[in-house]
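Q: I'm writing a short methods note and want an example of a predicted protein-small molecule complex. Could you take the sequence and the SMILES for zinc ion and return the bound structure as tokens? Please keep the output block clean; save any remarks for afterwards.
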Amino acid sequence: MKLTILGCYAATPRTITNPTSQVLEIRNRMFLIDCGEGTQVQLRKNKLKFSKINHIFISHLHGDHFYGLVGLISTFMLLNRQTDLHVYGPKGIKEIILLQLRYANSFTGYNLYFHELASTEGEIIYEDEKVVVKTIPLKHRIYTNGFLFQEKVGDRKLNVDAVNQHKIETCYFQKIKNGKDIILDDGTIITNDELTFDPIQPKSYAFCSDTIYDESLVDKIKNVDILYHETTFLETEVDKAEKTMHSTATQAATIAKKANVTQLIVGHYSTRYENINLFKEEAQTIFQNVILADDGKTFEFD
Ligand SMILES: [Zn+2]
Ligand SMILES: [Zn+2]
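A: Understood, no commentary inside the block.
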């Protein structure tokens, strides 16, 4: 699992900072999470392949989370994209995007599917044989969802030495990976644990931005491996956080601790702060394993 931060600052884009957007590479899928202004430039800067993005998840309709979407959709058009593109986001996103395309007299050469979200309960919005994605309803000034990405438990891993030693034919390999024992021609039973190793532990990633401090979040993200939780403010501006329905570093760390996550990534910093290290320092007074997001940073999780 690999996470690239394209942008992690609140409000307006600046020459040195970008609004929210991330790329999550998980089991060979590439998901785009939020698409603030400048996302496609950041994709190029970080040398990420546009064509591998087939699913885009938009948390909410504040500009710093989706103003880059119509630009990216247009660029896909100019690049002569043929593959289907799926956009998951709040109700209204389809109307907003199609209105812009209509007035530009533009048509995508690829199928563009909108999956509009309106539920206030967590729901599965994407699933394939390796990954499942659920919404995490958040409390913000407008309808907002976070997203929980979970790998599924994979096949057991083949112990090549053991299968060779027992001269087991390749046609049985999938059965073995599925956990079956093998009976040899002479009737000997070779149990599965002799032939396989445990599968890779599935990982989970929860993206939670933007949100007020909300303890009901804890159950929804319990024991996730990596939590990205917004920290727009430091605790000195806790009043502003409440008023604008954002969180402080202290609050994000409190959620991380209560949810028993392994790692906390903080971001969505207000541009009023010159030194983002203060977010890490503040969060670490409550929860030790804190990573500071910053534009262009990549994190790999094994
Ligand atoms: Zn925001
Ligand atoms: Zn917002």
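A: Remarks, as requested: The CA atoms of residues 170 and 209 lie 47 Å apart. The chain has a mean pLDDT of 96.
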